[in-house]
Every structure is written in structure tokens, then in C-alpha cells.
Design a protein that fits this description.
By secondary structure, the chain is an alpha/beta fold. Helices cover 44% and strands 13% of the residues. The chain has 16 helices and twelve strands. The strands form three sheets. An eight-stranded mixed sheet has the order 4-3-5-1-6-9-2-10, sandwiched between helices. Helix 13 links the parallel strand 3 and strand 4. The chain is elongated and about 80 Å long.
């Protein structure tokens, strides 16, 4: 009886590791998206069961059993990553962590080895039960059509998910192809990002810049996520979702009709932070090296990139140019201690904070005491971002600092869903500049700007606050929009 229960136990342990890496699936199990969570758990359970039977067949032969052990070892490493992130970082795994693993060296690994004692012990238990289960099943399963089909499901299902993702349903342009090795896609993305980083690093430009006045000591850029200005009381929303920012309105320049240059993060943020034109994005990716981080470095600023978001193609390539970079685990308020440490340094600093904000599902971006349901949860995510902004304003109040805040893009509401699609509604974003008390008068321009303005204007605006001569004309004047098909169109051609 005990022998028969061990294969069931290893399936449950595998699914536990999976849920540790994707905690939102477990959280949604008790919310409105419970059927989506059940489907995910069922699909991964089927794939892992198929994996066991596939390797049981391989175990029937002494030579193919070597292949089975190798496949199991990789799966064990996959499990080790899951439990390590949970016990060490209290979070799921992401692409940023994958890059850290790929870039770590022997000395760094040795210095952190004591942290992996418990995960290592769990890895050995997992491997022991896995091999035991496969060895038990080899005497149970027989070569026939039914077992043969089941044994191949772990290979067939990822291919099926890929076809569905590509030709049937792609939620917002993201990429998640399910596989029994669920961390493989993170490492695959990390490798591609490293290639981008290498290409862009080889092409660090020399900017033709002219210093015309002393720059501001602390130039802070905060990139919000999926925040609709339509849901902010700062822009007239009926609910008081931005109470702390509202109080600072007289100390800000607020852009009332700001729009994003694209509808998803991986397109909009590189367009905002670099001088690459939407017309060039598909063909001149190397021009991402002409970015504000490289420019700040050349202008004599100490550059920082601090993020609560996972890494992504293009964005991480730009982030890698910062002299100091850090991916922080936890909710967005985790950036406050980082900010306090940075501003203690006695030099001119350019700091980018890339926060989670209202990233779908917004409920997952909130501490437990902030959570709600449906659109209330989205409004709460905006209120939580405002709560973080309050601490930022308080920290920088008596300093020579400027804060530029803008969301990467908005979202379109359809029924009870928040969608990443190409529309004017989903491009309307918050965009404002806040001033510390010690800002020179020449820089302090407050009020509200009613003109339509694209957030690519942030690039020359940052140049201005660094005391540099800004270009007479810039791409924001053209209001070109890069749609999800990677085609550049006039903003006015977007549907409402």
C-alpha cells in the first residue's frame, strides 16, 4: 500500500513546488479566478504524471535509464529553484533571478551556499521519491497504445499550448508556454535578454551633449505599471484613490492629456527611455543603446535602476547600463528603504524605480490588508501606489530632488476585464513632475498642462533636469504609436 501512495505523493510535492513559484495561482484558487487556477493545476498535474510514465518506460532498459536519470535531475533542479526562492526570498521565481543565476560566479555561489541547506535537503528528498516512483511504475506500466499516449502527453501538451498561444489566444502579448520544466521559459528569456544586453553594450554611444546649467542633485524617475489616469482622483475620478498625491498638486507640473507610445510594457518603456523611434523598433533594436541611462552616465550622474518587476527584453538591456542595479522582492513599498540609502550618497544621482503598480492581476500586487475584489481591487492598487508615493514625497521633501512619475501604459475596461489592447482609452496615463523644497527656482514650473503629450517627452525632460541642452525637436511631437503588431501608426488612428 505504501509503495502505491509514493507516486501520488511525488505528484503532490511537484505541484507544491509549482505553486510556490506561481503563488498567484494558489491565491486565485480562493478568488474569482478559481477555475483558471484549477485548470492550471490540472494541466501541470497531467504533464508531470505523463513525465513519470515516460521515464518508467526508459527505466526498463539499462541504457535508456541514463536518459531518464538526466531528465529527472533537470526536473529536480527545477524544483530546487522553486523551494529556494520560497525559503530564501519568500517569492516566486522570475526572469531577473534567472539572469542573476546565469551571471553569478563560483565565489558568489560559495558565499551564499549556507542559504541552500534546507532547499538542498528538500531537493534530495524530491529526487529520491521521484526515482523511487519511476522505478516502481516501470513494473506496473506496459507497452500499449493507452500508456504510450499518456507517456507522450508531457511533450505534446507544451506544443499544443504554443499553438493556442500563437494562433488562438494571447493574453496581452505576453509569453508563457506551459511545460513540466516550468522555469525553462524564464531561462530561455534570460538568455535572449543577455544577447540583447551584449549587443547594446557593444554599442555604447558618445552623446553630443552640452551642460548649460547645474543639474538637479537627485533626478528620480518612477515608471508605474498599468495605471489608468481615469481611475485617479488627481485627474477627477470620483473615488479618492490618490489622496496623498492630490495634496501635492500645487507643488507639481501635471500633464492632463498624457498618452503612452505603446500598449504593453515591453514596447512602451524602451520607447520612453531611449531615443529609438517607433518606426525603427523592429529593425534597429541596437539603437536602444541611445538611452537615458547611458546619457546620465556620460553627464556625470551616478545611475541606479531599482525594480520590483521581473526583467523583460529591452527593459533589462537598458537597466544593465546603470552603474547600480537591483531587483527587489516584495511589494512596491520595498523601494522606500532603497531610496533612503541612495539619497545619502554625496553625488548627483539619476534613479529609475520600475514598480509593479497595478499590473494585472492587481490584487496580487497588494499586501493582504489592501486587497478587495474586481474593480475595487484595481482602485485599491492605485491607492496603494499613492501610499508609496506619500513616503517618497516625505523622504525627498527637504532635498534638491525632482520626481517624474508616469505609467508605462493604461488599460481598457471591457465589462469586468482590464485589457492590454490598442486603443486610446488604454494609452491615457498619469504623468507629472514633483519638486523637492531645495529645487532651484529656474526648474520649478507648476500647474496643469492641457495639451496632448506623449510620455516619450520624458527623455528630453530628464535632460533638462540634468542641466543639459535639450533637442529643439523630439519624437514625442509626432505622436507615433507602436501597436501590438509592432507597426508604427499615427496616434489619432487609434480607436477609442
Amino acid at each position: 500500500m505504501l509503495k502505491k501512495t509514493i507516486p501520488i505523493l511525488i505528484i503532490l510535492i511537484y505541484l507544491t513546488g509549482f505553486l510556490l513559484s506561481f503563488p498567484y495561482i494558489f491565491n486565485n484558487f480562493f478568488g474569482v479566478e478559481k477555475w483558471e487556477s484549477i485548470r492550471n493545476i490540472f494541466e501541470y498535474g497531467i504533464m508531470f504524471s505523463s513525465f513519470l510514465i515516460f521515464n518508467a518506460f526508459l527505466f526498463k532498459n539499462r541504457y535508456t535509464s541514463i536518459i531518464a536519470v538526466i531528465l529527472c535531475l533537470f526536473l529536480g533542479l527545477n524544483f530546487l529553484i522553486s523551494v529556494s526562492c520560497y525559503f530564501i526570498y519568500h517569492s516566486g521565481f522570475n526572469v531577473g533571478m534567472a539572469i542573476s543565476i546565469l551571471e553569478s560566479n563560483v565565489n558568489e555561489a560559495i558565499s551564499m551556499s549556507y542559504m541552500f541547506i534546507l532547499p538542498g535537503f528538500l531537493f534530495l528528498i524530491f529526487m529520491g521519491l521521484l526515482i523511487y516512483s519511476i522505478n516502481y511504475l516501470k513494473d506496473t506500466v506496459t507497452f500499449n497504445f493507452r500508456y504510450g499516449f499518456i507517456a507522450l502527453l508531457w511533450l505534446i501538451m507544451p506544443f499544443t499550448f504554443f499553438l493556442k498561444h500563437r494562433y488562438v489566444s494571447n493574453k496581452g502579448g505576453g509569453k508563457m508556454i506551459k511545460s513540466v520544466y516550468y522555469h525553462l521559459s524564464d531561462f530561455n528569456t534570460a538568455l535572449k535578454i543577455q544577447e540583447d544586453i551584449s549587443m547594446i553594450k557593444k554599442n555604447v554611444p558618445v552623446f553630443s551633449i552640452k551642460q548649460i546649467q547645474p543639474g538637479i542633485e537627485n533626478v528620480i524617475l518612477i515608471i508605474g505599471e498599468s495605471e489608468r489616469k481615469q481611475n485617479m482622483s488627481l485627474y477627477g475620478y470620483s473615488k479618492k484613490t490618490t489622496p496623498y498625491t492630490d495634496l501635492e498638486a500645487e507643488n507639481m507640473m501635471i500633464y492632463d492629456r498624457a498618452v503612452s507610445p505603446a500598449g504593453i510594457t515591453n514596447l512602451s518603456v524602451p520607447l520612453i527611455l531611449s531615443s529609438i523611434h517607433p518606426d525603427e523598433f523592429r529593425y534597429r533594436y541596437d539603437k536602444l543603446s541611445y538611452n537615458i541611462v547611458n546619457l546620465a552616465n556620460q553627464a556625470g550622474y551616478n545611475s541606479f535602476w531599482i525594480s520590483t518587476q521581473a526583467s523583460a527584453k529591452g527593459i533589462t538591456a537598458i537597466a544593465s547600463m546603470a552603474k547600480n542595479k537591483k531587483w527587489v522582492s516584495g511589494y512596491d513599498e520595498a523601494i522606500i528603504p532603497e531610496l533612503k540609502n541612495v539619497i545619502q550618497k554625496r553625488d548627483h544621482k539619476f534613479v529609475v524605480f520600475h514598480i509593479m503598480g497595478s499590473h494585472p492581476n492587481p490584487c496580487n500586487r497588494l499586501p493582504d490588508n489592501w486587497k478587495s475584489e474586481n474593480m475595487d481591487c484595481y482602485d485599491n492598487s492605485i491607492k496603494y501606489t499613492d501610499y508609496v508615493m506619500k513616503d517618497i514625497f516625505s523622504t525627498l521633501k527637504n532635498t534638491n530632488s525632482i520626481v517624474i512619475y508616469a505609467s508605462d501604459h493604461g488599460l481598457k475596461i471591457q465589462g469586468d476585464k482590464l485589457l492590454h489592447i490598442d486603443s486610446k482609452e488604454s494609452t491615457q496615463v498619469p504623468f507629472f513632475v514633483w519638486y523637492g523644497d531645495k529645487i532651484p527656482a529656474a526648474y520649478r514650473i507648476t500647474g496643469r498642462d492641457p495639451k496632448l503629450i506623449q510620455t516619450t517627452y520624458i527623455y528630453p525632460l530628464l535632460m533638462k533636469y540634468m542641466g543639459l541642452e535639450v533637442p529643439q525637436h523630439y519624437k514625442n511631437e509626432e505622436n507615433k504609436y507602436l501597436n501590438l503588431n509592432m507597426k508604427s501608426i499615427d496616434y489619432e488612428k487609434l480607436t477609442d
